Amino acid sequence: MARLTDFPLHDGGACALPVHAQALAGLDYTPEVAALTAPLYERVRHVVPEVEWPAIAPLVADILRLKREHDAVVLAHNYMTSDIFFCVGDFRGDSLQLAREAARTTARVIVQGGVHFMAETSKILSPDKTVLLPSLGAGCSLAASITGADVRLMRERYPGIPVVTYVNTSAEVKAESDVTCTSSNAVQVVEWAAREWGTDTVICIPDRYLAQNVAANTRLKIVTWAGRCEVHERFTAEDIATLRATYPGVVVLAHPECPAPVVAVADFAGSTAALADYVAQKKPARVVLLTECSMSDNVAATAPATDFIRPCNLCPHMKTITLAGIRDALLYGREKIEVEESVRVRAKQAIDRMLALPLDKRATDFRTGLAPAQVTVFDAHAHIGA
Fold it and tell me: pTM (2 decimals)?
């Protein structure tokens, strides 16, 4: 994954604003701002009308100035809008890629272009860094579905069974887990945990749909939680049938947080990084990405020959992160993310176990066309007082 400064400009220079850009005091669309940001506009002109750029460019210029002043980087998730993703993001990718970058960045300040659990992960991995989240409204329905107490209850019900926890969870939940996973490596991590613990059963929480899709790709028994992503759960197999009838030959790519029947009838399923790689490598003539809205915008920028069909399911939490919010975070040092040290240390152990596993490309792609697997969904209410 590349830093913003690694991308050449049209004149062959580096894509960091020159030192004199730091003198920009206001947020007016001056000739200087226009000239400095013109190469960045080329990256987003497919989604940002030219008439809107004068309102965006001064914010971009000021953010780049503030990043230089505060020794800061912006970690931009694939679901960020294109103005953030391409114009101010220093590192871009899925949650696994951003976790790796958070662990090794030398910057003093990390601004999380993502949601709260991602910012917590950055703080867990880089406790000496200041981690800022531009909006405390950037939560996650999946992360909110489970608590540390819920994990402890599952451990009581299934003693000795390893707990694999999706990174889309709070630090408290990670701290109660044995190892974390992402959609990039969920199958790999679950199978590793089964070998390490010598068991044919693994607890994989909290996303019931990710767990079903993992189970369909392994012979292990999976116990999960009833959590769901409010974006991905809305896609249905009927949606795919309609898309295929309306757009003959369309290639359907699905995220594994989608319900298992959706993944079963998709052409390919994988993490956001895997979906982007598929488009780059296969170059389909027409494609639909069953995931969050901005993903298609960001992938389309590097695939001009592909026609993107866009059934849009928006993440309201991701969309609370804006350019103005990122500027304010850098300007005022808000909102600062902290993780209690005893929680951080235990959560870091779970994350470190994941990061220590070698990258396995075969584990990033979910096999499709498989019958949705049956998993045990843990019912907390059924076990209270048991």
Answer: 0.86
